[in-house]
Amino acid sequence: MKIAICQINPTVGAIVQNQQLIKSFYSKSLDKEADLVVFPELAISGYPPQDLLLRQKFLEKCNDALMDFIQGCTVPVVIGSTLYEDNELFNCSFLGQNGKIVGCYKKILLPTYDVFDEDRYFKKGTLPKVLSIFINGKRVNLGLQICEDLWDTNYGINITKELKKKNADIIINISASPFGEDRLIERSQLIKEKINDISIPFVYCNLVGSQDELIFDGQSLIFNSKGDLISQGKPFSEDLLIADISKNRTVEMKVHPREKMTYDALVLGVKDYFKKTGHSNAVIGLSGGIDSSLTACIAVEALGAKNVHGIAMPSRFSSQHSLDDAEELAKNLKIDFRKIPINSVVKSYESLLIEDLDNENIGLAEENIQSRIRGSILMALSNKHNWLVLSTGNKTELAMGYCTLYGDMNGGLSVISDLSKSDVYNLSKWINSRDEHLIPENSIRKPPSAELRPDQVDPFDYDLISPMVSSLIDNEQSPSQLIENGSDKNIVMNISKRIRINEFKRRQAAPGLRVTSKAFGMGRRVPIINEFDELENE
Q1: Model pTM greater than 0.90?
Q2: Given 92, 147, 205, 297, the catalytic residue
């Protein structure tokens, strides 16, 4: 039996466009003589549709598109869409053949952790479902699953075993599983564990593309009944997999280096965000530092050099080497580069606020005026030319609140906000190992500085702070655990407090691309007004 996995990149809410994409892949599958065609979870609507699911007209349009597609199907197809039935909404896997819906499976396990809140919208199904079709004159029992059904360890029900009991000949899991480090390994190990128990083939069809903060990596998988991989989808790209599960052909799983996967994920995130929001050009404030340099590299890869504009905005505190580094980066990337000095504007602010500012003792207020002037310039260029501003702050800085509201935090998309400072350096070095000296070496070697006052450098030892922030945020360790593991109590208390009191800034930040297990944004729900401090309350 030849199975086609259609690893597609739909757009949330673009129902007609998604339907056309689905029909195109279905047609290509038939050209490849597929016996069964499989599409991802909620392929009709795109994932996650969130509160669009509360709109009756949206659900009707999804149903109309599904029925129109199924009516044109001859070869069996499995596809994800919504089902509104008896005043309840379900996340479903539909099986269609010969112009009719053979049946559907209502998703049982609805994730409610991290970025997922499916039980806000969907009612869970109650019964595992096996549906039968005839392929080449032979009856085939399809055991249907949807995404989280694979991660059933903590739910008290083993969906896969239940499908085996119902005489499934093959498991079809349609999924919308976001990218994360080692996520491919996690999925494949789970599937192999299932096959060890049931000894039947397993098909895993995953979504690809970016939606707001989420990035879906694709990398669909087909395993035979022995647990051998027989086909793997491309990462971060639409793909059409054709595999005959009755043959013994096996392949080695392709696992790419961490830096490459992170870089490719961010490139797709930027590319899709621009395409799906109707933008084509990006503007970036180039400081000559490592964060803006990395952001510019990702933007050029995603959008093309001609569509990226770098703006240097020196003040009287800007060093010549920073300007030189910014200009060298722009030259290496072949992007539009402009210098807009801000000294005269800063002086105007200082004159206007002469009674309140102290130019002899520069503090936070005086520093932030410079940052906010730069943010205003970038937004003015954005408004004038329809360029989308890319924010360049990293995760460590966002955690510590080392960023300026309405200044360097301005932007329509925050590209590296889920990369720690350590990740920023590692990824920049990887880029330079791939494209020699694309990022000026001085940008990597020099101490990071906002250059908002004389001889300023960032007030953190990032080699020490960055891993601690990652432990607290990504690994969700408590401050007490860090101290028990040998970290300095005063430093941990300072970091923990900074993370807590700067939640208000992160709420106002641009949406950031998620590449770790715990990103700031939709998956981390911490109150702004939050007086709980674990260490102070011991």
Answers
A1: yes
A2: 147
